[in-house]
Amino acid sequence: MSDQKILEGKVAIVTGASRGIGRAIAEEIGAQGASVVVNYFSSEDAAAEVVGGIEARGSQAFAIQADVGNFDAVQSMIKKTLDTYGQIDILVNNAGTTRDTLLLMMKEEDWDVVIDTNLKSMFNCCKAVARPMIRRKQGGRIINISSVSGLVGQGGQTNYAASKAGIIGFTKSLAKELGSRQITVNAIAPGFFPTALTEVLSQDMVDKALEFIPLSRLGELEEVAHLATFLASDKASYITGEVIRIDGGLAM
After folding, report:
1. pLDDT of residue 178
2. Coil, strand, or helix at residue 177?
């Protein structure tokens, strides 16, 4: 078996990469040889840990603070990446947040923050990387992190589910726009994983969720990371516009 790292020579940006799914993806992409831009919003120390871990395994990395819901901040992040590495091959849009509450109780701010962080960030980041990917004429990989909530809905999550469903429509449309340039665009829809977004759930809620998961367990962050790394590689060069559930069968 070859020891060749499948992302050797690639440059990746992972948003929301200081913790949870984003951290696991950044670390695995780095382990497979890519140089990684570790985006974070507020967790500077955690982002530095991710960079250190990637560098310890032989790849380059740097952390950059940016609110990906802000168009100008994203433009600056992309410019710094291009100034540093000269190319962008992989974009993983992972940044996300929740403001769960029933619609009748939901404040306008609860809606706006979730839509900006989860959905507008897709527009900001994809618009910023598409042109340099096209100009380089080497194709590219865009991977958007959605959720099973965007497929089946969830009470108390109208804002979150709307943002994640929007990601799915966005992914399919952009895949059609960029396909002729050999840039693939796919979405991953995770189910229940141990992240900061699920830590707020009570044990009773977790136990109830497990009753509906055929595999009878929460997912492991590395399982999402392996899927994302596959989609980022040349091994997935003929897959685009797909939404791949990784949920233990929850939304089957």
Report:
1. 98
2. helix
Catalytic residue numbers, as ranges: 160
DSSP 3-state of 76: helix
Q: Distance between CA 186 and CA 243 in Å, rounded?
A: 6
The model's pTM: 0.95
Q: Express each pLDDT in 65-75 by its tens digit.
A: 999 999 999 99
**Going by CATH, does the domain composed of 11-246 fall within 3.40.50.720?**
yes
User: What is the pLDDT averaged over residues 17-34?
Assistant: 97
Taking the C-alpha atoms of residue 121 and residue 114, their distance in angstroms, rounded to an integer, is 10
Distances (CA, A) of 225 to 87, 162, 229: 22, 24, 6
The pLDDT value recorded for residue 242 is 98
Q: Any alpha helices (H) in 17-70, and if so which ranges?
A: 20-31, 44-56
Handedness of CA 115, 116, 120, 122 (dihedral sign): negative
Summarised one tens digit per residue, pLDDT across range 141-161 is 999 999 999 999 989 999 999
For residue 210, which amino acid is it?
Answer: L
Q: Find out whether 65 and 41 touch, Cβ atoms under 8 Å.
A: yes
Are 189 and 247 in contact by the 8 Å Cβ rule? The answer is yes
Which pairs with CB-CB distance under 8 Å and at least 24 residues apart come from 82-86? Answer: 82/132, 85/11, 85/35, 85/60
